[in-house]
Amino acid sequence: MGTIEGHLLAAAFFLFYALYYSVLVSLALLQGQRVLKPPLPPREKQGHRLWQRVPLEGMVKVMFTLTGIFTEFFYPPGINRMKMVDWEDPQRPFMFTDAWHHITMYLFFMLSGVVDIVSQLCLAQQSRKLERAAEAVAFYVLVLLLLAHLENKSTLEIRVHVLFLVPTFLVALVLNIEVWVPDQPPLWVLKTWMGMVLSTWMLQLSVVMYSPPSGQPWKADNPKDMTFLSIFFCWHLGLGAALLAAIYGLCSLWHHHCSSWTATLDPSYQPCPTESNGGELDKLRAEDSGVCL
């Protein structure tokens, strides 16, 4: 992830899930659901076809993280970072520490995806607590790696990563709470909001560190540059809330449109029973308010 492409890949992964959960949360709130995602029925009551039971979220996690791992190992082309220790050096130093930080992060999110697949596909009854716990562990590992990632970094890199820690830790904390206190709508909203901030700030981090629009690199010794980092982070808090509100508004329009469409069907219109007895059919024909379809 030591390139802009690596950071953009990770940001796309988090942004995809933030947008996905924004839609889920919006629809759940509009429909008055008490659970964000209804649990799967017991295994014996599920469909027999495998594609009907494939856990898409878990599969997407595994695919994204595998892509990230191979990118860390072999991108740019011709690079191989799989070697962890330089055995030819008498001091046996560790190599590619930043890459191994990122690979470890991807591995724990892959583990979360594998837990989703096992819980939904292999267990007799889906374990939502296990899925949340695995996802919480992945975010806690990300927090620990970010703290370790601050070693021997410039002041600018330290500042952007410390700000990145804030939403990451809050997402991990909410997931941790949901293991024991699930299905709380305020926690759904907070988790989704912080996930949105996390992903958009990672995009900002990529721009600041690798491709500033002005063409001039950000300077750690410039107080104005450092101050604007905090200002931009606050703007990302507002941007995350605005995106969540916009998605909620779009889902509300869709929800009310569907509700009004179903409401336009006049309840007096009833389908005629084609296989009922003659008395019921004559009764329906005699009613002025009823129309046979």
Automatic annotation (TrEMBL):
Its main location: membrane. The chain crosses the membrane at residues 6-30, 99-121, 133-150, 162-181, 193-210, 230-251. It comes from the Eukaryota. It is a multi-pass membrane protein. Belongs to the TMEM45 family. It is found in: Membrane. Coiled coil: none annotated. InterPro entries: DUF716 (IPR006904). This is Transmembrane epididymal protein 1. PANTHER family: TRANSMEMBRANE EPIDIDYMAL FAMILY MEMBER 3. GO terms for cellular component: membrane.
